[in-house]
């Protein structure tokens, strides 16, 4: 697709979602598409004053939204889910244009938004607290969950909309307004999502205050302003560990709440009893899908020596034959890297691996699209040691493969990295599976058996340990982070017994 065509498609896609934003602002913030490596829009960025005003407005919205009953708040999210269904193809295309994903993956991301909306609607009637046994006669003790306040959401380029929705759908049913700072690389998807939500808000009626959901376009400085502002009760930040190291302390300094969803260095372990055909397919999707640009991408693979010579040739073949190309023009499985910097970090990691004795298969830049775009063959690297670039996240399609002979040893290496997001074991041996899932097994927030590291469902809590930041979003009881808890003790007796039997007679 030519540069001019892509600009037109971008404009039309935004309009189809309902956005009327000006995308040709003179000397504005350029938005690039990795499909062509060229600008598809120019937007007016939001400055410091805009951010401050947006937070003030969100705080005002909070005053009334927190008093709207939970199930009624759920109705807004139900309507949003309906509007997302109607706009699925358009939003999916927006994701493809900005993040370079295939239509199937782009629409899959929108499906994730629809799924979390469904989850949140049910949740809106289940914001339960406990009734707790009290030691004092004639007393009752209970726990109440109240809306928390303004939620600031910072998101990464590689999932331009689903993580926002994991936060926003829950925040809205929990009674909290949201202010979203999307990646400066993918602001258009955010503006398109906001336009879709605006349609739901219009249908919802008057009990939704203005400024319940806002988008701020800009770079790290806008994220920093959210992190520093004491009126933002919760900052949910998705991105690199580098970003988390800056944002986390800023929020902590003012005793704000934080959910950090940061980088991972995810691994799989292939045991002797593994179903190798299934393993091959799971590893291929986990390591090459989304051009290796998922936080859950499989980056390391420990293969037992008994099956190494069986699975490696099959993996090499899959890597050599995988189709790389513009996912809007072809049915290629692997799209572009986000930009030149991503390509440089990939080539430098491969150079380092090679210097350490690694054998690199693939990794070459492909002649696809204009010179400004970065399409690469995914790289499979056979490493003699668990060392060097293997120990860190390089946000590109590189899979380091290492041989092991003892599961305990493989597990030790598996856990010996900074990231603690996702992990998999491939086995049909019950003992190996249980060890991997046990307290001495994988130390990640996500531990899978016989499926890859990526492609989580919304029903489970999503997030990871260590340098992944410790946050949890999406399903299970992640909603609690968006509310404040009060413990209430009610005395319905005529006495005043003190807890722990303390006496204080006056
Ligand atoms: P990034 O850290 O460069 O940017 C992420 C977001 O943080 C952007 O909106 C950016 O503007 C903002 N930001 C950057 N520096 C900031 C600062 N100092 N203060 C405030 N905000 C700041 O990440 P990226 O390149 O967009 O995304 C890739 C990274 O995100 C990878 O490390 C990937 O693993 C991680 N990621 C994690 C998850 C998860 O759920 N754990 C999901 C997606 C991506």
UniProtKB/TrEMBL annotation:
The lineage of its organism: Bacteria, Pseudomonadati, Pseudomonadota, Alphaproteobacteria, Rhodobacterales. Keywords: Membrane, NAD, Oxidoreductase, Transmembrane. Pfam families: Aldedh (PF00171). It comes from the Bacteria. Belongs to the aldehyde dehydrogenase family. Gene3D superfamilies: Aldehyde Dehydrogenase, Chain A, domain 1 (3.40.605.10), Aldehyde Dehydrogenase, Chain A, domain 2 (3.40.309.10). The active site is at residue 261. This is aldehyde dehydrogenase (NAD(+)). PROSITE patterns: ALDEHYDE_DEHYDR_GLU (PS00687).
């Amino acid at each position: 697709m030519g540069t001019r065509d892509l600009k037109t498609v971008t404009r039309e896609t935004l309009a189809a979602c309902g956005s009327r934003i000006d995308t040709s602002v003179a000397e504005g913030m350029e938005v690039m598409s990795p499909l062509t490596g060229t600008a598809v829009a120019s937007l007016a960025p939001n400055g410091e004053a805009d951010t401050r005003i947006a937070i003030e407005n969100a705080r005002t919205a909070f005053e009334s939204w927190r008093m709207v009953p939970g199930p009624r708040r759920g109705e807004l999210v139900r309507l949003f889910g309906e509007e997302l269904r109607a706009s699925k193809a358009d939003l999916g295309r927006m994701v493809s244009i900005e993040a370079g994903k295939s239509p199937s993956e782009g629409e899959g991301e929108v499906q994730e938004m629809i799924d979390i909306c469904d989850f949140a609607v049910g949740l809106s009637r289940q914001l339960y607290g406990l009734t707790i046994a009290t030691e004092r006669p004639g007393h009752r003790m209970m726990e109440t969950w109240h809306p928390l306040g303004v939620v600031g959401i910072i998101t990464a380029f590689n999932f331009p909309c689903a993580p926002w929705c994991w936060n926003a759908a829950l925040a809205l049913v929990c009674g909290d307004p949201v202010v979203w700072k999307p990646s400066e690389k993918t602001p258009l998807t955010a503006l398109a999502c906001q336009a879709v939500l605006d349609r739901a808000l219009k249908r919802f009626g008057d009990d939704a205050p203005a400024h319940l959901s806002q988008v701020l376009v800009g770079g790290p400085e806008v994220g920093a302003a959210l992190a520093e502002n004491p009126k933002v009760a919760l900052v949910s930040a998705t991105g690199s560990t580098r970003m988390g190291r800056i944002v986390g302390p800023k929020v902590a300094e003012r005793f704000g709440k934080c959910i950090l969803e940061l980088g991972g260095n995810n691994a799989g372990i292939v045991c002797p009893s593994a179903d190798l055909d299934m393993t091959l397919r799971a590893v291929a999707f986990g390591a090459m899908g989304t051009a290796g640009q998922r936080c859950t991408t499989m980056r390391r693979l420990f293969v037992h020596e008994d099956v190494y010579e069986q699975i490696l040739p099959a993996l090499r073949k899959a890597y050599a034959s995988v189709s790389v190309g513009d996912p809007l023009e072809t049915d290629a499985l692997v799209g572009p890297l986000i930009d030149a910097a991503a390509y440089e970090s990939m080539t430098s990691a491969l150079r380092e691996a090679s210097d350490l004795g690694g054998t690199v298969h693939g990794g070459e830049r492909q002649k696809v699209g204009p010179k400004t775009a970065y399409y690469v063959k995914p790289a499979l690297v056979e490493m003699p040691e668990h060392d060097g670039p293997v120990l860190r996240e390089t946000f590109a399609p590189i899979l380091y493969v290492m041989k092991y002979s003892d599961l305990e040893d493989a597990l030790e290496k598996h856990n010996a990295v900074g990231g603690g997001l996702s992990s998999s074991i491939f086995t049909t041996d019950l003992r190996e599976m249980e060890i991997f899932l046990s307290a001495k097994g994988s130390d990640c927030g996500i531990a899978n058996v016989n499926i890859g590291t990526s492609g989580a469902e919304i029903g489970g809590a999503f997030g990871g340990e260590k340098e992944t930041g410790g946050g949890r979003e999406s399903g299970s009881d992640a909603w609690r982070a968006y509310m404040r808890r009060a413990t209430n003790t009610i005395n319905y007796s005529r006495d005043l017994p003190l807890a722990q039997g303390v006496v204080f007679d006056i």
